[in-house]
Design brief:
The complex is a heterotrimer.
Chain A lengths: L2 H6 L5 H15 L4 H5 L7 E6 L14 H7 L7 E3 L5 E3 L19 E5 L14 H14 L13 H8 L13 H11 L10 E5 L2 E5 L7 H5 L11 H6 L23 E7 L3 E6 L13 E6 L5 H9 L5 E2 L10 H8 L8 E14 L15 H12 L3 H9 L4 E3 L25 H11 L9 E6 L4 H16 L3 E6 L2 H9 L5 E7 L6 H7 L1 H6 L10 H12 L2 H17 L3 E13 L3 E2 L15 E2 L3
Parallel strand pairs in A: 1-9, 13-14, 13-15
Antiparallel strand pairs in A: 2-3, 4-6, 5-6, 7-8, 8-9, 10-16, 11-15, 11-16, 12-16, 17-18
Helix pairs in contact in A: 5-6, 5-7, 12-14, 19-20
Chain B lengths: L1 H31 L12 H10 L6 H15 L13 H36 L4 H15 L2 H15 L21 H31 L2 H8 L4 H19 L1 H19 L4 H10 L3 H29 L6
Chain C lengths: L4 E5 L6 H8 L15 E2 L2 E2 L5 H7 L4 E4 L3 H4 L6 H10 L9 H11 L5 H4 L9 H13 L5 E5 L7 H18 L2 E6 L2 H7 L2 E6 L2 E7 H6 L4 H8 L50 E4 L2 E3 L4 H9 L40
Parallel strand pairs in C: 1-6, 1-7, 4-5, 5-6
Antiparallel strand pairs in C: 2-3, 7-8, 8-10, 9-10
Helix pairs in contact in C: 4-5, 4-7, 5-7, 7-8
The chains are: A alpha+beta, B mainly alpha, C alpha/beta.
Chain lengths: 607, 317, 337
Amino acid sequence: MSDRLIGKLRFWQPLALMGALSLVVAACGGGTTSNNQGSLAASQVLKFPVYQSAGTFDPGEADAEVDTEISQNVFDNLWRFDDKLNLIPDLATEVPSSSNGGISSDGLTYTIHLKSNVKFNNGDSFSSKDVVYSFNRAVALQGAYASNLSAIDGFSAVKKAAGSPPSSKSSAGTTSFRKTIEDKLAANDPSLQMKGLTAPDANTVKITLASACGWCLTAWSLQGSTGSIVNQKTVQTDPENWWSKPVTPGSEGGMVGTGAFYLSAFTAKQSMTFKSVSNWWGTPKPTLKEIDIAIHDPSAIAGDVTAWEQGSYDLIGYGGNSSNLTYPLIQGIKGNARFAKELITQPKGRTTWVSFNVGNTGTGGPFLGSSAAAKGLRMAFALAVNKQDLATTVCHNTQCQAATGGLITKGLVGYLGDNQDPLAQFDATKAKQLLQQYDPSGNLTKNLKYSYNTGGLNDPVASYLQSAWQTNLGVKVNLDPSSDASQFISNRLSGKYVMARDGWQFDYNHPQDWFDNLWGSLATDAGANTSGYNDPAYNALLKQADQQPIDQALPQYKQLAKLLSDNVVYIPLYYSVANFAIHSYAKGAGSNTQADFYWDEISIAQH
Amino acid sequence: MRGTLIYIGQRLVLIVFTVLVVSFGVFFIVHLLPGNAFVSDRVHGQALQILLHEYGLDQPIPVQYWNWLTGIVLHGSLGVSLYIRGLPITPLVLRELSVSAMLGGAALIITIGLGVTFGVLAAVRQNSWVDYLLTTIAVIGYSVPSFVIASLGILIFGQWLNNLTNGVIYYPEPWTGTYGTLAELSVPAIALGFYTSGQITRITRAAMLDVIQQDYIRTARAKGLVDRVVVLRHALRNALVPVTSILGPTVISIIVGSVVIENIFGIPGLGKEFVESIFQHDYNVTVGVFTIYAVLIGVANLGVDLIYTVIDPRIRY
Amino acid sequence: MPGETLGLVGESGCGKSVTALSILGLVQRPGRIVGGKILFKGEDLVRMPVDELRDIRGRDIAMIFQDPLSSLNPVLKVGFQIDEAMQAHDKIPKDQIERRGVDLLKEVRVPDAARRANDYPHQFSGGMRQRAMIAMGLSNRPEILIADEPTTALDVTVQAQILELLRDLNEATGTSIMLITHNLGVVAGLCKRVIVMYAGEIVEQGPVEQIFESPQHPYTWSLLRSIPRIDADRRERLRSIEGLPPDLIQLPPGCKFSPRCPYRIERCFRDDPQLKEVAPSQEAACWVTMKRAYAEMGAATITDTRPGAASGVRPPKGVAAKVVDARTIDAAEGPVR
């Protein structure tokens, strides 16, 4: 049995388990297959709508869930998460560890053995050169996730070499940057070769780190991202746009990976079709023959639900669209006896909170600094919000749940435990008392603004917060909505708001993903420290934690979480809960905290 | 004939000039708007700078405009999308243009067909109940904006009559494929065309009433021509001259209206793209679509002026 | 009478055109014919069904109008408009229509007729347009051609050419011509018989020479006096008829001309005179007639032509003299066509 199958046996969904069982039987071969063959529908085509065009499927640049949820089915990583978020081998024969000799005793050298039977969708065979190319390329492109590879020795040098692009005054046009990188990589330009990344032989990759890294294994497994392997030949045909080209027989280009599916048709902003690779190298073979994805406006979801009920779509919510079902639509599905069981609720690794400005002196505000007064006022505002009531009022307990166990979502490594976050408490009396103590005149908290981007739950949440602060503190906070999310995020990241909606969706199941990217010097350096919280103690502890294996580092990360809550850097609000509408005949379809289950696990039963 | 060709040439030069000015204006404005296509929780700092550089957005706006312009002139390319990164825009907007053209063409046929028919009938049956009915419809037509008619159309055909139409016209489910079906096209096209048809009814009726008083109509009747020929061949032909004069504004009104209608009905045309691209900060698409609109309006006006010469031989350029 | 040339004369607004339009049933709404008969070959055109009347239009009775520019459709080719008249009836075989169209243009002396047939009316001069109208009128070889002020809108030299053309065509084709005009000079040049109309009624008729020589109705007499004469003394004022034709809606009782007539007598205000023979084949509707005016009221030397000036008769009380100073109502009302 393949490693991939082991993951399948751990399905938490009974429905999915059934689908997996059939696959197990199919994989083991023999005469028993026919029993299950009979239950499969004649047409193995999965149809679903998405509500946003992917920005790019290029793993070197992809930076949104809507990108990776699709492309994870085309590209493979060295290892990957299974449905229970455990690491399992993918292109590598095993996940390196110190016990299997894959990781050296000092934790700095990784020796990775590759499967020898892997082929790209276009027939090219896969070797260690492709790993070296893909990793170096991803670093040179400096996409949002390039930092996933930052621990590799030589990362900074390559980043620097690629990051001095031709003078911006030139009129060479928009293709120069990517083209230049591809040309240099093709020429084996040493400036774009990470020193710590080598290929001793065709089936071995050796990676040397600049410093020990406890989170690298998980970061490199992030699907559809910088750890994914791409085909140099096809990328070179069109460095800008290769990922949007269908793979056609005889053509060099196209969205080619080593996964079980390839892009067969792409109509921008309208539809995408993927087809399964015949004679795919991996096991088990995919059951689905084709995936038809319609790209719709978000406003079309009501009609799509009707179409789903009529059987035109097999599911809704795949492709990073699991928060699109609105409460009335969810109620509608729940209210229909036939479909109520097909509404799948799944907590997502996404947390929403309110950020205080604690460190950006230019922005100022009553919450700035580490004085008792500033901290006391922050605490007052945090305690004045009843998080349970918010989840009930705003989300009807279907689209979110109260965030009571820290910023890292329930179900992920680093979750503190239910009701462990002191900031999640609701204590109106104490809140009022703190306000009286630190702002008796009310002058400090006059003309406060809560800034947020409009859409989804953000508007009702803002109204709820406003009324909570009014009721429990007697403070009138003005709402500052922004209809332009990108503008809002720019301002927020550069610390221009005194109080702002904030949030994070985890990329890989490791606390480093949160504590590096959101607070401290690392976030500040990246220009992403919303609150401006930059505590030397925090930075030192973070550096230490990042270098340890996760079992040793976990207490330190929890300590970091405590630092944040002790300093009242945020007001925890809620964890997002996703809602999928999945017909029960779409066996194996579902989702975990992070991502959709892979298409190659899905089959369409007779219905 | 030669005069006409020179005239067309002059007008084309003027259109090119106008389009240049308009495109630069739009280019300038969209690049000055806050926000950009790339920013997200994850894309900021250096990653953002790299993207800006990759798409040339870190260059001065006049340089960007020059690059954009040379791209069109040298490669016939409107550039690449920022939202779907690197995707060439030209095939995308051409496809969307063909969708919009189909919708607009259908609306124009409805507008002219309804408007002229109603106008002629109302004039021929002046002061009868037919006249009052059609005139009332026309007043409703041009006093009710197209989006209201669109909403009513959705309510009636997409909701109330949903069972009757067998769910063919179900909104807001977007239409099937690129071009939709005839049934799916019908309601948006009527919503778009009805508004302007009111104007045409009014103008046609007034022009017909004026023309019917003319001496040559008396001549035609004195020749012994039957009423149908008198009305259609002699009166209508002349009445179309003033109707043609509002054809330009009508076409523009349909082009502008299509932006609203396409967004209401989820039609994957240029108008929907235009609005979407603004929200997505997809500068190149916004500028490209707007430029196409400018060209369309210029060409439509030129076309109307040329139709004049066909309808009224006295007009020569 | 076939081949006849009849002139219908009167001031503007006296009902000449309406009479002509009534013949073909072309009076525009809200106007309509309330009574009377129009006999054509023994049939009453007034009571004829619309379809039959339409067959007569253009085929048996054709009509040409005052302003040839506005009477031709500006957006259709001249040749087509002529052909169309023939296509509307089946008098001319279909295959000959186009050739006959060009021939007709030649006949009415349009130069380069074959090419000109493809021109639009605005490319024609005023005279040529009227020739085209005449060609159109004659296209079905009608028995009667009604020409309503055919020369009024044209230059004097062109006027003469058109009249000459009409005369020649009358002689060549035998088509009767009914010439409607306010210009007695035109009538003298073309017609054999003349009918003088006033306020919608015939006041005098007879052979042209006889009427010109010896008009018996004071209105005819006044009209003839108002023709400018080349041999007139320079100091002599151009004589006009005092006042305006009466409002056809509110006609005065008695003789319609009485409010303006210098020779009126008391009876004129009371009784409407009927046509009666005043000379061989000449009829006039007048209680006085010029014979008596010459004999008793010194008409030969009269200079004051104001109403009642010669007879000294004023309107009876209660009958307001419907004489309005022409200068005050210049722009008050368009003419009744």
